[in-house]
Specification:
9 helices; single chain; about 0% strand; 2 domains; about 270 residues; mainly alpha
């Protein structure tokens, strides 16, 4: 009877962990989708002489009224991966307590952990691109994910450069913000008399400042990452519309001023 109670408790914990991850990922998806809609609205309402409108309220309305199911499905996939990773780490800790620690087991555990991490990264990348396609086309999540995957394969070079440069800038931004705040916090803790009396060892507060600053910087730099990826997909959607139109829309002024030269250069590849 006690075993059944323990099993029920484990299931309840597993369900609670899954629900927690699902809610967190859904809120993150809503945040990303609002930015995506705002950037896409800015791109396709801009002209050569006038910038477009970055509408946050439109993103909130579309996410709740039209695309909540797609966002929930993408969040569900990530929540499943997170839950599997937590279960795997729990099982690994139990195995270690039993003394099952040899080279073969370590190799298997590292391989499983690597596969789960790669799957998580792939699903996260696919979700971001799928959400952009959902915004641009209005299709469901599965169709948008397939279209985004094909687009990334066709233009793998552009996506690699965008993600590579974007990742580098994002990392440098995080480290710059975190290190700057840490230095300022350390100076405050060591140079101000009232703080020196309260804090005998400034190392611990400096570490805490660095971690909190890095966390907050990650949230802000996520805006840059999703913005760059959205602009890239809007650019290729713009080119596709020009090709389907059949007229000389490559030289049109109905797009952001910064994109006119890029679209004109892509004309040669389209032809």
């Amino acid at each position: 009877m006690n075993l059944d109670g323990k099993d029920d408790l484990k299931w309840q914990i597993a369900v609670s962990v899954f629900a927690f991850f699902w809610v967190v990922e859904l809120l993150t998806a809503l945040f990303d989708y609002v930015i995506i809609v705002g950037v896409a609205s800015w791109y396709f309402t801009s002209t050569h002489s006038k910038p477009g409108r970055f509408s946050v309220m439109r993103g909130l309305w579309w996410s709740i009224r039209y695309n909540l199911g797609s966002l929930a499905l993408g969040s569900f996939l990530l929540a499943v991966i997170w839950t599997l990773r937590v279960i795997f780490e729990y099982i690994e800790s139990k195995v270690k307590t039993l003394g099952e620690n040899n080279q073969m087991m370590n190799c298997v555990r590292n391989g499983i952990r690597c596969c789960l991490d790669c799957c998580h990264r792939f699903i996260k990348f696919l979700n971001h691109n799928a959400y952009i396609q959902v915004c641009l086309t209005g299709n469901n999540f599965c169709s948008s994910a397939m279209a985004a995957f094909i687009l990334a394969l066709k233009n793998s070079g552009s996506f690699m450069i965008t993600n590579g440069i974007g990742g580098l800038i994002s990392f440098l931004g995080k480290m710059t913000i975190a290190c700057s705040n840490t230095v300022i916090g350390y100076i405050i803790c060591t140079q101000i008399d009232s703080m020196k009396e309260m804090i005998q060892v400034p190392f611990a507060p400096a570490v805490l400042i660095f971690l909190l600053s890095y966390l907050m910087a990650s949230i802000f730099m996520q805006v840059y990452s999703i913005t760059s990826l959205t602009i890239l997909q809007c650019l290729y959607a713009d080119v596709d519309l020009c090709i389907q139109d059949g007229t000389d829309q490559f030289s049109s002024q109905q797009r952001p001023r910064e994109m006119i030269g890029i679209v004109a250069r892509l004309r040669k590849d389209a032809n």
